[in-house]
Structure formats: structure tokens, C-alpha cells
């Protein structure tokens, strides 16, 4: 009970720190009005939640011995190819194995591979000692190869070599099996020593979990300052933010209207300048026209007088000269002015009115309108000062409430209790290490003893093969084999004896370990890796008939909550927060509680109190409007532009003086030299001078007058309507600001409020994400499960399975080893009798004494046979030219 209480405090209480101060309000499911979907506010950077480093690496790499593990697993898959019996196990577990008598066929079907192998092992265990007993009794009766006699065969050497090779190969296989078993035994012992390291690592991770959780929660609380800082910044800059947005919205409509007024002000100045230019030009042209007219009349009179010269009409004069004079006299009528500027009326009245209009600086009035509009941010600041102060106080209060609320829960005390619990458990585990080491030592001794049983047999086999091979003499007869060869055969038979003594014990051990380790691998380890084991654990109504899911049923009393062992393990495996893994939202739903926080609603309601009145903004004062009306009533439309343009288009003179002077000079050049010619040439120069000094300036003035008049014509065209349109645009813009800006202000206020509240929402969403994924990451708990799986499966089961695999392989190959050793021993041991061949002509029968077994004995009653002594003992053919019993064909 104390452990459960500590666990609940550790997992739940830290999360309570994230609540709003008004806990009673948070428990009420209130429906908030969602704000209008607007562009998200600026992204806040809350940094990274500080996280400790978990040192446990819950992953096991067996190294080279992993090849043996894989071979054993492959063999088990061949023995047991059936799928994991999830439904069968669940059914048996629910019925507490009471359904075993009805489901035994399915159990046997699933276990058929293990049953067959176990039956073989059991038969081996029972039959081998019986066979060994009968074999021993049979040999004692000189049967089953017990008689010390060996027939001579031609293929004896071949058979001996083959049997030796087969026995050596079999021994090698047995050796490999023993080495595998020994490696598995040593691996298990070495991995047992790693248990302490893994346990200590897991315990340190739990301490890291306990120590980091308060720090992570404090970090979440401290990051409220980030949101608060941004909120305060935006509140203090409400002028540029809210006022600036309102200004930008209004400026789209107002700026064009004020620009039109500015354009009209520019037109006023240009109109006044044009009128000034018209007056000046008209005065210059009128004065210049009089002077030009006078000078042209003088030139015309002077040329007429010159043409009265006798050389132009005397009978003695040249006909050509007379004709030229006549032509010149007729062209003199062209030397006259063309335009009459004296008839054009002046524009003094209009100019006087424009001077009065321009006494009002319309541009300055318009700039005051711009300034008034640009002062919108300042207006917003002044009109929202009280609301901003209240919101700032509210924001400060929220931070104080969160800080004070976190101190109401004894989180540190609960975590300290959990840390004490972890230390207590760790100490208990430490107390069991000596016992574990002792048990492992006894286990190691037992496994080594089993291996030594086979090693003893292998020692006799290898020594027997070595002695028999080295001591074998192909010239020696079976009865005369050497001591070393005989010792080799004896060792082989000793190995056979020990094989019969130990093999059934070894097979019994192998069978037990095979059943235990194989089923552990197929029913626990392999389903754990494929997560099929979790499906059994998570089977509905398995633990409790009333609980669909036992974990939430046990923790929260809500068995319908989707929380399974597999999801819990997988979530922790991904190092996510324990809040998400244990579905603590069932008892503390941050999503729903933080969604209805009172302070968010308070901030929103306070910001809704922002009221902005822009009636004080005057775009164009009445003086400016009157100035526009005066401009339209300045009498500009009374100017007769057509008369001016008509006179301007006539030109200054009727003929171009330069062309006239050129023609006059050309005609004069045709005259004979004399006073007439020189006088006319002088008038040509005078005309050019008049053009240069009078006509050219007047033409420039005429061009300027033309431009001014055309500008006035364009400007004054429909001027009253233009001014009226400008005034209407100004009035519409003023109406938008004064009476119709509420919609714009409300819209921008909602956006501004959404931005402010959005910072709180970002903070809340960051808290929810951090709590789910980063705060109190439960990787240590999945590491504990993985560690137990590593110790149980990778350390124990894999090593145990490899041990029985190697031991069983060696034990099985003891059977062919027994057969081969028995047969091979005949070729190494010294026989008591051997095949004899009789020769009547050379060896009298009376000199030979037949033993009771029917075979010849080399010595009779201790007296050497002289005939036999004279023949080398190794020459069997000469010693025994004829066998006492003729060899059968089949023996050859």
C-alpha cells in the first residue's frame, strides 16, 4: 500500500503544478468561446526541457557465441514450428488451467515436437543403462566380442584404419559439443557477473528519473516568463501594434483622398504661375509688337525710297534691274506684323483671385490631416492606458499564482519517498548477490562435472587411439601385440564403460533442460520479441473477469480505458513522458483543464474592453475646404482661351524676316554695283538684326504664352466638378474615420487580442506537449523490462539451451563412439588365441597341445616347443603353415 501511494504521488503530483491557481474552476467543464481563426502569433521559443541521460543500454550483443544461440533457435524452430498459441494460453489462464483436460489435444499438438524429443531422450535414458548391463554380461560370457580371439582377415588393416578414422571423427564431434556446452556454461557465469552492473545502471536511471522530474517541472513553470515577457512587450507596444494596424487599414482609404487635395494644392500654385506668365507674356508681346511694327514701317519706307532711285525706272536703266526693283517693291507689303496682341484682354482679375486663394496654405492643412491620421497609434495608447494597466496587473498575478500554486504540493517529499523505496529495493537486491553467486558457482560446478564426464570418455578415446596407433606393429600377431597397443585397446574399452555409466545421466539432464529451456524460448522469449506475449497479457478479462484492461482497471478503476501493457511498454521504449504512457489524463486531463483556464478568459475579457475613438482625427479643416471652393470660383473659366491661342498661332510677322532678307539679298546681287545695290544690302542686314533682336524674343514669349494658356485650358476644364469630387472624397474618408471605423477597430482589436492570448495558448500547448513527451520520460521502466528479458532470455535461456544442445549432441554421439571403440579395441588389444595353420610334414601333431577352447596355445605347461622356438615369432605363416580350423570363405 505504501509503495502504491508513493508511485501515485510521484507520477501524478508533479503534473498538478501545471494547473491554474483556481483549482476549483479547473475542475468545472466550461465551454469556452473559441476566437475567430486568425493568423498565428509570433512563434515563442521556450527552449528544451532539461533531461538527464539514462545510462542503461538495454541491448545485448552476445558476440561470437551468438552463432551458437542462432543455431539452437533454428533447431527449436524445426522442433516447434507451430505459431504462438495465444488463444490457447489465454483460455487456459482464464480457466486457471481447469480446461486442460478438454484442451489437452491442442496442447499436445503444440508440444508434439518437444514430446517426441523428450520421448527419445527418455528412451535413451532407460535403454542405454539396460543395454550396457546386458552388453557387460554378454562379454563376461565371452560373447559380444568378449572372447580374446581375432580372426585373421586380408582387409584387417583397412578395417582398422576405417574404424580409427570414424572413432576419431566421432570424438571430434563430441569434443565440439563439449566445447559448446563449456562455452555456454562460461558465458552464463560471466553474464551473471554483469547482472550487478545492469541492476545498478537501472537503479541509477531511476534516481535520475526522480532527480530530474522536479527540475523539469520547475523549468516548465519558469518558462511562463517567456510568454509573460512577450505579452508585456506587446501590451507596452499597443500603439505601434494595434494603432499601427488601424492606421494601415484606414490609410488605404484616406491617403488617396488627401493625395488628391495635395494635387489640387499643386494645381493652384501652377495655375497662379500660369496666370502670372500670361500677364507678363501679354505685356511683353504688346510692347514688342508696337516696336516691331514701327521698325518694319521704317524699313519698308526706306526700301521704297531706295527703289525711287533713277536706276530703277530710268529709260537708260538695265531691264533686269528695273524688273528686280519692281519685284522688291511688290514684296514690301509683307513686312508687317501678323498677330495683334493689343486686342487680347488681360487676366488680372483671375490673378488677383488666385493670389487671395493662395494666401491659405492648403498643403500645410493637408499635412496636418496626415499628421492627425499618423497620430492614430498615440491615440490608441492614450485611450487604452487603463485597460493595458489592468491586463499587466493580471499577467503579473497569473505568474504569482502559478508560483504559489506549485508550492502547495509536496512533490519533493513524494519523490524523496520514492527514492527511499528505490534504495530499499536496491539494498534488498544487493543482499541477494552473494546467494546468487553461490548458486551460480554450484551450477557451474555441476555443469563442469557433466562436461567432465564426457571429457573423461574423450580422454580414453583419444589416448586409446594414440596408444593403439603408435604401438601397433603390423608384423605382430594378435597374441603378440605390444604393451602400448594393448593399453590403447584397454583405454578404448574403458571409454566404452564410462560411456555406458554416464550417457544415461547426461541424457536425462539434457532432456530436462531441453523441455525447460525450449519452452521458455518458444513461449516467453520469442513471443516477447514479436510482442505476441503482450497480446496474452493484454487479453480482455484475463486477470479479472470484470476488467477488460487490467492496468487501467487496477490503477484508475476504469477497465474500459485504452491502456495496455504493450502500449505502456512501447511508449516508454520511445522515452516519452510517463503522463502519456500511463494515460494520466484520466485523473488529470491537462488538455481539458488548461483549455478552460480562468486567466485566459480574464485576459480576453479585459482586452475586449479596448475602445478606440478616432473622431478627433480631422483630415481637412474647413479652411482647406473653403480654399478649394474659392479656387473653383476664381473665374478661370471666363478666360477666352480660343482668342489667345488664335493670336499665338498667327506668328509674329506675316513673313519670315530671315527668308525675306535672304530673297532681297539674292535679288540685289543680280543688280549692278552701285549705291542702289549697297543700300538694299544694308536693309538686308537691318531685317536680320530686327529678327534677331525683336522677333526671336517675341517668338519665345509667344511659346511661353501658348504653354500657359493650354495649361489653364486643361486645368480650368470642368474645375468645379473636380473640386467637388475632391471634397466628396475627403468627406467620405472623414466619415470612415469618425463614424464607420468601428468595424476596422474591432477587427484589429480581435487580432491583437488573439495575438496576446495566443502566447498563453502557445505556452499551454508547449506544456501539454512537453508533459506528454519530455517531462518524466519513462525509459527507465521499459529498460527494467528489457533488462529482465536480457537476464532471463539472453543470459539464462540462450546459455542453457546452448548448453543442452552441446551436451546432447555429445551424448548422442557416444552411441557410435561405443560401437566404434568396441570394434577398434580388437585391433589394439593382445589376444589370448589366434588363428592356427597345421603342417603335418614339419610339425607333429603330438607336439601341439590343443586347449579346451580348440585353439593352439603357444606354450604348453611352461616348456617351450623347440620347433616353434626355431621360427620367428612374427612369422605366422611359417609358424602356422596350416590353420587348425580352415578359414571360411566369408572371413576373407
UniProtKB/TrEMBL annotation:
Q: Name one GO cellular component term.
A: cell surface
The keyword Transmembrane is annotated on this UniProt entry: yes
Name the membrane topology term: Multi-pass membrane protein
Q: Keywords on this record?
A: Glycoprotein, Membrane, Signal, Transmembrane, Transmembrane helix
Q: List the molecular function annotations (GO) for this entry.
A: cholesterol binding
- Tell me if Signal is a UniProt keyword of this record: yes
The signal peptide, as residue positions, is 1-24
Membrane-crossing ranges are: 112-141, 162-184, 441-470, 491-516, 803-822
Location in the cell reads: Cell projection, Microvillus membrane
Lineage, top-rank taxon, reads Eukaryota
The UniProt entry's sequence similarity note says: Belongs to the prominin family.
Name of protein: Prominin-1-A-like isoform X1
Species lineage, top-down? Answer: Eukaryota, Metazoa, Chordata, Craniata, Vertebrata
Amino acid at each position: 500500500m505504501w509503495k502504491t501511494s508513493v508511485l501515485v504521488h510521484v507520477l501524478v503530483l508533479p503534473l498538478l503544478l501545471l494547473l491554474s491557481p483556481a483549482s476549483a474552476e479547473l475542475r468545472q467543464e466550461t465551454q469556452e468561446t473559441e476566437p475567430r481563426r486568425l493568423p498565428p502569433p509570433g512563434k515563442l521559443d521556450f527552449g528544451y526541457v532539461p533531461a538527464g541521460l539514462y545510462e542503461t543500454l538495454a541491448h545485448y550483443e552476445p558476440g561470437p557465441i551468438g552463432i551458437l544461440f542462432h543455431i539452437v533457435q533454428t533447431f527449436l524452430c524445426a522442433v516447434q514450428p507451430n505459431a504462438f498459441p495465444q488463444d490457447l494460453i489465454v483460455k487456459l489462464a482464464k480457466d486457471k488451467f481447469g480446461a486442460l483436460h478438454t484442451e489437452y489435444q491442442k496442447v499436445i499438438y503444440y508440444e508434439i515436437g518437444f514430446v517426441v524429443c523428450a520421448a527419445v531422450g527418455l528412451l535413451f535414458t532407460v535403454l542405454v543403462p539396460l543395454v550396457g548391463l546386458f552388453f557387460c554380461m554378454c562379454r563376461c560370457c565371452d560373447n559380444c566380442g568378449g572372447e580374446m580371439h581375432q580372426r585373421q582377415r586380408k582387409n584387417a588393416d583397412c578395417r582398422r584404419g576405417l574404424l580409427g578414422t570414424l572413432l576419431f571423427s566421432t570424438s571430434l564431434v563430441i569434443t565440439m559439443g563439449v566445447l559448446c556446452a563449456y562455452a555456454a556454461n562460461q558465458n552464463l557465469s560471466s553474464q551473471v557477473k554483469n547482472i550487478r552492473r545492469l541492476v545498478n545502471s537501472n537503479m541509477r536511471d531511476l534516481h535520475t528519473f526522480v532527480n530530474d522530474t522536479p527540475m523539469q517541472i520547475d523549468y516548465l513553470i519558469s518558462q511562463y516568463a517567456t510568454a509573460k515577457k512577450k505579452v508585456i512587450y506587446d501590451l507596452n507596444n499597443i500603439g505601434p501594434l494595434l494603432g499601427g494596424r488601424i492606421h494601415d487599414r484606414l490609410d488605404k482609404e484616406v491617403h488617396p483622398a488627401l493625395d488628391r487635395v495635395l494635387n489640387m494644392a499643386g494645381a493652384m500654385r501652377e495655375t497662379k504661375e500660369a496666370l502670372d506668365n500670361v500677364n507678363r507674356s501679354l505685356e511683353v508681346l504688346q510692347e514688342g509688337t508696337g516696336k516691331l511694327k514701327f521698325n518694319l514701317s521704317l524699313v519698308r519706307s526706306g526700301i521704297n525710297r531706295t527703289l525711287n532711285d533713277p536706276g530703277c525706272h530710268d529709260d537708260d536703266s538695265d531691264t533686269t534691274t528695273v524688273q528686280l526693283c519692281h519685284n522688291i517693291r511688290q514684296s514690301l507689303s509683307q513686312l508687317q506684323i501678323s498677330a495683334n496682341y493689343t486686342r487680347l484682354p488681360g487676366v488680372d482679375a483671375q490673378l488677383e483671385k488666385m493670389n487671395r486663394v493662395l494666401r491659405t496654405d492648403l498643403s500645410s492643412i493637408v499635412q496636418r490631416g496626415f499628421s492627425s491620421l499618423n497620430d492614430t497609434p498615440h491615440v490608441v495608447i492614450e485611450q487604452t492606458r487603463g485597460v493595458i494597466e489592468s491586463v499587466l496587473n493580471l499577467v503579473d498575478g497569473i505568474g504569482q499564482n502559478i508560483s504559489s500554486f506549485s508550492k502547495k504540493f509536496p512533490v519533493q517529499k513524494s519523490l524523496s519517498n520514492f527514492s527511499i523505496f528505490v534504495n530499499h529495493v536496491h539494498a534488498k537486491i544487493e543482499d541477494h548477490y552473494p546467494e546468487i553467486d553461490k548458486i551460480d558457482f554450484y551450477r557451474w560446478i555441476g555443469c563442469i562435472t557433466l562436461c567432465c564426464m564426457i571429457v573423461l570418455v574423450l580422454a580414453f578415446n583419444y589416448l586409446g587411439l594414440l596408444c593403439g596407433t603408435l604401438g601397433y606393429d603390423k608384423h605382430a600377431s594378435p597374441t603378440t601385440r605390444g604393451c602400448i597397443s594393448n593399453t590403447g585397446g584397454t583405454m578404448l574399452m574403458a571409454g566404452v564403460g564410462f560411456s555406458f555409466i554416464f550417457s544415461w545421466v547426461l541424457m536425462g539432464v539434457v532432456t530436462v533442460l531441453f523441455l525447460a529451456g525450449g519452452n521458455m524460448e518458444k513461449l516467453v522469449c520469442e513471443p516477447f520479441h514479436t510482442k505476441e506475449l503482450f497480446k496474452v497479457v493484454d487479453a480482455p478479462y484475463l486477470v479479472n473477469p470484470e476488467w477488460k484492461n487490467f492496468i487501467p482497471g487496477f490503477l484508475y478503476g476504469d477497465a474500459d480505458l485504452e491502456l495496455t501493457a504493450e502500449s505502456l511498454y512501447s511508449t516508454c521504449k520511445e522515452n516519452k513522458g510517463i503522463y502519456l504512457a500511463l494515460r494520466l489524463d484520466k485523473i488529470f486531463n491537462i488538455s481539458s483543464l488548461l483549455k478552460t483556464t480562468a486567466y485566459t478568459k480574464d485576459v480576453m475579457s479585459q482586452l475586449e474592453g479596448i475602445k478606440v475613438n478616432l473622431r478627433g482625427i480631422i483630415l481637412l479643416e474647413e479652411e482647406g475646404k473653403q480654399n478649394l471652393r474659392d479656387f473653383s470660383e476664381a473665374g478661370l473659366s471666363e478666360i477666352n482661351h480660343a482668342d489667345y491661342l488664335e493670336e499665338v498661332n498667327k506668328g509674329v510677322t506675316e513673313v519670315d524676316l530671315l527668308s525675306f532678307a535672304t530673297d532681297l539679298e539674292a535679288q540685289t546681287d543680280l543688280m549692278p554695283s552701285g549705291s542702289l545695290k549697297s543700300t538694299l544690302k544694308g536693309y538686308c542686314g537691318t531685317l536680320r538684326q530686327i529678327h534677331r533682336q525683336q522677333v526671336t524674343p517675341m517668338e519665345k514669349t509667344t511659346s511661353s504664352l501658348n504653354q500657359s494658356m493650354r495649361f489653364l485650358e486643361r486645368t480650368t476644364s470642368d474645375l468645379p466638378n473636380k473640386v467637388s469630387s475632391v471634397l466628396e472624397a475627403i468627406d467620405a474618408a472623414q466619415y470612415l474615420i469618425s463614424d464607420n471605423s468601428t468595424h476596422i477597430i474591432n477587427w484589429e482589436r480581435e487580432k491583437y487580442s488573439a495575438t496576446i492570448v495566443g502566447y498563453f495558448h502557445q505556452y499551454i500547448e508547449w506544456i501539454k506537449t512537453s508533459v506528454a513527451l519530455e517531462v518524466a520520460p519513462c525509459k527507465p521502466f521499459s529498460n527494467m523490462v528489457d533488462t529482465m528479458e536480457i537476464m532471463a532470455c539472453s543470459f539464462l535461456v540462450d546459455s542453457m539451451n546452448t548448453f543442452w544442445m552441446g551436451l546432447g549432441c555429445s551424448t548422442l554421439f557416444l552411441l557410435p563412439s561405443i560401437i566404434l571403440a568396441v570394434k577398434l579395441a580388437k585391433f589394439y588389444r593382445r589376444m589370448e588365441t589366434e588363428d592356427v595353420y597345421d603342417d603335418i610334414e614339419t610339425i607333429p601333431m603330438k607336439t601341439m597341445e590343443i586347449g579346451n577352447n580348440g585353439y593352439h596355445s603357444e606354450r604348453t605347461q611352461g616348456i617351450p616347443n623347440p620347433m616353434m622356438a626355431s621360427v620367428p615369432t612374427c612369422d605366422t605363416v611359417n609358424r602356422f603353415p596350416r590353420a587348425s580350423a580352415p578359414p571360411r570363405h566369408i572371413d576373407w
